[in-house]
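Case study B.
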Amino acid sequence: MTEVAMQGPVVVLGGGLAAVSFAGGLRSGGFGGEIVCVSDEAEPPYDRPPLSKEFQREGAADKIRLDLSRAHDVQWLRGTPASKVDTQRREVLLADGRSLGYRTLVFATGATPRRLPALQGAPMPVITLRTLDDAQRIRAGLTAGARLVVIGGGVIGLELAATAQGLGAQATVIEALDRVMNRCASATLAAVVAQSHRERGVDLRLGRQVTGFDGHAILLDDGTHVDADLVVVGIGVVANDALARAADIACDDGIFVDRFGRTTCPGVYAIGDVTRQRNPISERFERIETWSNAQNQGLAVARTLLDPTVTPYADIPWYWSDQYDLRIQVAGVSMGDDEIVRGDASPGSKFSLIQLHRGRVVGVTCMNNVREFSSLKRLLGDVALPDRAALADPGTDLRKLLAAPRT
Ligand SMILES: Cc1cc2nc3c(=O)[nH]c(=O)nc-3n(C[C@H](O)[C@H](O)[C@H](O)COP(=O)(O)OP(=O)(O)OC[C@H]3O[C@@H](n4cnc5c(N)ncnc54)[C@H](O)[C@@H]3O)c2cc1C
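Model:
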């Protein structure tokens, strides 16, 4: 173990998945020093993916709590925002006036949804979806027959629209671009997802922007309007990096970290949604807003603090999304100049997609094809592909194909 970790105290800002995973990783690795987690949420740590899915159907907060058994003997300060970090004195100031000294500081502060100023003052509830409280307020409005308007055709908005349809509400999704899931899905996947929503009755308006409201009507830039009982805004998030920026730590909508989670300030690390890290596939510094990144980067940074000789973090980014009975899994990046379609890429079918960029595999997607996902992920980064026709044939045994020598 390193001196830094051995000597503690370790202060973690944030109480989400990355924080819990990191604290659990330190304890599992044998760290016996003091760990303090500071969270501005009063709620004990919970998982966010169910907020747009199961939680809307079941409303059971106790089912989405994060398991804290690995993160034992952690001092939790809840409902307590950190308000300043003094990296010279190695001290965190809390909004309630207390201060905490640290030897190691970890930012796990996540991100905050963007708001839509055009809807300020609207008479119906206009809600973003990030917290359990947001999810509870949305759930209260998702009654049968309720008119839900989702602004933004990204993953969270589409998941919520799917859940709402299942609950008997009527969802309209307004997306400014001419396709859904622009940042995180190939055009082929996006088209299948869009059609799947339309087939289930979602009113999907692509290429439309919200200009304002008139009573309970949301006004669009083509002069039409959509009546709404409830509006959910899902137009992306910004990193909660203000404290790091104020402490002169390098940030650009996200705290820059290397593969050890190190920021530009000695003794200060960052993990999860708040980070801007090198994506091993695109080789660009990006924010990776996925459950698996929060979990695995948190664990990896704990490991490297305890033993700097371990392999640094370089996981391939991946996420899943559940919409209706569609289980979507995407790894790598969605850009590409070529695509291999394995199966029938149409609504209701199971299929996989392999995205290539200049001959290199940069992304894989599985639609209701969970068994193929881990095999296909192994192709990422490869330039020597297996036989293209065999890869495109869903009858080919993938494991045998990938094990065969390549040219
Ligand atoms: C509705 C929803 C559905 C999702 N579904 C999926 C999915 O299906 N698949 C998938 O891969 N990913 C999904 N995600 C993404 C995934 O949940 C996130 O990537 C992950 O939760 C990020 O964890 P985190 O710990 O980095 O950040 P967070 O969970 O945001 O935790 C950060 C915490 O820090 C707190 N904080 C911020 N500033 C301060 C401060 N100054 N002082 C103290 N505390 C502070 C915040 O309030 C928050 O509690 C979903 C996210 C949402 C919101």
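Residues 13-19, 38-41, 48-49, 51-52, 81-82, 108-111, 129-130, 156, 240, 243, 272-273, 289-292, 294, 319-321 surround flavin-adenine dinucleotide (CB under 6 Å). The remaining cases will be described in the next quarterly update.
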